[in-house]
Amino acid sequence: MRDVFPWRAPAHAELAKRIPLPGEARMKAVGLTRYLPIDDPESLVDFEADKPAAEGRDLLVEVRAIAVNPVDTKVRAPNDSNRDVVEKDPRILGWDAAGVVVAVGPDVTLFKPGDEVFYAGDITRPGGNAEFQRIDERIVGRKPSSLGFAEAAALPLTTITAYEALFERLGLSADRQNSSESLLVVGGAGGVGSIAIQLAKLAGLRVIATASRPESADWVRELGADDVINHREPLRPQVEALGLKWLDHIALFNDTDGHWDAAADLIRPQGRIVAIVENSGPLAQGVMKSKSATLVWEFMFTRSMHETPDMIEQHRLLCRVAVWIDGGKIRSTVGEVLSPISAENLRAAHRKLESGRAIGKLVLEGWRS
């Protein structure tokens, strides 16, 4: 995990206790110094840090709302590589935020102070669980004007992931060129699945979503899924009951290992499977080879982590989706809002996400005065 998410926060733990110098800008933040189970009160703690300044192509954003994603819990949770690590500087997590630009670096061309924005951020830099965040303008979008900050904060990471998974990794077309084709979304009620269903329906596909509980099945139907099947039961009989032998496209949005054999069996010859959750064991490729089928990975931090030449595409896609949202074509997937933004409420959100029973996105809004 340390190699995948190579980041150190800039605020020393002792700064939480010291008295700021006259005129020194400070901010509230939530972070960690040790990697602990979520029931440990020290797993996420409130502290204060120096307020950052905008440089280069960075925006300085006053964060109004944040959302929690599985990546937050994975980075925070103890594992063999971080169990004994004690961070010298508190690490600020959080890769979903909405807020207002308060300052811009000298090289910024896309935004100005006062602009309302939403973004997922960069895994290699401090996250959004702070009153102010410095963020590269190329991965920031203009907040949908029809949404409040909480509703907007629920969207960026999952929207980027779902958009890139469908339209870049699977090669689908947003202008309905694939309208006669089928897409299976495994994990339809999760954050990414909830957006992917809507994007796929916008593109005209027949969407089969998986859900294992009545409330999650109702959720994916509300989002537009044409058919719902249970991922805790064998998939092929359920797919065949829908009159299908093969599926044109499959999106694995949870438990890649657990669903791999069924996905390889169900994908049509020369079809594509996209996965977003890393596998822990070998994925058998024999059936895939015989079908000339493709497995492609989606990781929404790739562009920012490697500063790829097309990094600005995330700005463009967020702005494009904002237009769709304001036009009523896509809705926010916020499931629950907690207030204020604090270590206590973030621990509660992590705990619920780790339980596997969250529907839609968990959002926190507003800072305690």
From TrEMBL:
InterPro entries: ADH-like_N, ADH_Zn_typ-1, ER, GroES-like_sf, NAD(P)-bd_dom_sf, Quin_OxRdtase/zeta-crystal_CS, Zinc-ADH_QOR/CCCR. Keywords: Cytoplasm, Metal-binding, NADP, Oxidoreductase, RNA-binding, Zinc. It comes from the Bacteria. One of its GO terms (molecular function) is RNA binding. Coiled coil: none annotated. GO terms for cellular component: cytoplasm. Pfam families: ADH_N (PF08240), ADH_zinc_N_2 (PF13602). The keyword Calcium does not apply. Residues 39-364 form the Enoyl reductase (ER) domain. It is found in: Cytoplasm. Homotetramer. Belongs to the zinc-containing alcohol dehydrogenase family. Quinone oxidoreductase subfamily. This is Zinc-type alcohol dehydrogenase-like protein. It comes from Pseudobythopirellula maris.
